[in-house]
Design brief:
about 325 residues, alpha/beta, 12 helices, 10 strands, about 15% strand, binds ligand PBG
Length: about 325
């Protein structure tokens, strides 16, 4: 008769983990500043640094004041940035998106010149901040999205970002074939080493609310359900991600992140590409509001949320909390 064993390996390990050296060698997941990328919102004009009321700790910045945020971020260990632009001029075609003198293009040129390759500059490629109707693509007369003419505008926009010095472009319009079209356009110009981070599994989410105020990009009529993924369909989102991979994406993104960890984890098992998770404005603000209300400890809850995304399989986390979390990790 075999004896019942009463020391369970898990409890032995739990006790052994009190020894710091063992704890460190068996830690499965780590979160470091290198894992985080900070979004920046660049506006036209001069001398502007205006807090965004819907997003704690995030400002609208004109190019001449970008360094006030970028330099301390670098100091904290954050060297990766994702740029969004807020142009003064909007029209039905989002013409200002590909303006070489637009806020994103000028910001990229400034950062590339000032910091060189000590930082990674990525840009959001979408039309919603630039169209007067606020949709991510161009509209036909009947109000539906014209996918293929939108692709041409996205290509022009990506090329103008690359020309300014962007290392990576991140198409977020969710137009069919956008990664392939941009890849081809970059390769045909002289930008074959500019990488593409696809917003591959981007869901039609209520958690983008605070961002739309930050980017002035709410659609004037209708919503984005015809081109963003429905929250009920995880498998369909994975198929979209594989499609982006086939079209030449270098990094696949899942967005939102905390609510879609199942998608991150499944994608991790099914692709060999790096995965980015975007902790979107509503997810970030949910934690900020809860901390302000005294329900959560802000440092611990924010850090745990980011660590959890790493555990789910994210290599890179795009997050408004990047600088705070980096500082907390160090202290
Ligand atoms: C642009 C874009 C959006 C976000 C990132 N890129 C808005 C949207 O799709 O409606 C949302 C980011 C956030 O909520 O933090 N298409």
């Amino acid at each position: 008769m075999s004896e019942l064993r009463c020391t369970y390996p898990t409890s032995r390990l739990r006790r052994l983990r009190e020894h710091r050296l063992l704890a460190e060698s068996i830690r499965e997941t780590d979160l470091r500043p290198e894992h985080m990328m900070l979004p920046l919102f660049v506006v036209e004009g001069q001398g502007i640094r205006r807090p965004i009321s819907s997003l704690d700790g995030v400002d609208h910045l004109s190019v001449d004041r970008l360094d006030e945020v970028v330099a301390p971020a670098i100091e904290a260990g954050i060297h990766r940035f994702l740029l969004f632009g807020l142009p003064d001029a909007k029209d039905p075609w989002g013409s200002s998106a590909s303006d070489d003198e637009g806020p994103v293009q000028r910001a990229v040129a400034h950062l590339a010149k000032r910091y060189g390759t000590s930082i990674l500059i990525a840009t959001d490629v979408c039309l919603c901040q630039y169209t007067d109707h606020g949709h991510c693509g161009l509209l036909r007369d009947d109000g539906s999205i014209d996918n293929d003419s939108s692709l041409r505008r996205l290509e022009e926009t990506a090329i103008s970002h690359a020309r300014a010095g962007a290392h990576m472009v991140a198409p977020s319009a969710m137009m069919d074939g956008q990664v392939g079209a941009i890849r081809q356009a970059l390769d045909q110009t002289r930008f074959s080493n500019v990488a593409i981070m696809g917003y591959s599994a981007k869901f039609h989410s209520a958690f983008y609310g605070p961002f739309r105020e930050a980017a002035h990009s709410a659609p004037g009529h209708g919503d984005r359900s015809s081109y963003q993924m429905t929250p009920s369909n995880g498998r369909e989102a994975l198929r979209e991600a594989f499609q982006d991979e086939a079209e030449g994406a270098d990094i696949l993104m899942v967005k939102p992140s905390l609510l879609y960890m199942d998608v991150i984890a499944r994608l991790r098992g099914d692709t060999l590409l790096p995965i980015a998770a975007y902790m979107v404005s509503g997810e970030y603000m949910m934690l900020c509001h809860a901390a302000r209300a005294g329900a959560l400890d802000s440092h611990r809850s924010m850090t745990e949320a980011h660590l959890a995304l790493r555990r789910a399989g994210a290599d890179l986390i795009i997050t408004y909390g990047a600088v705070d979390v980096a500082r907390w990790l160090r202290s």
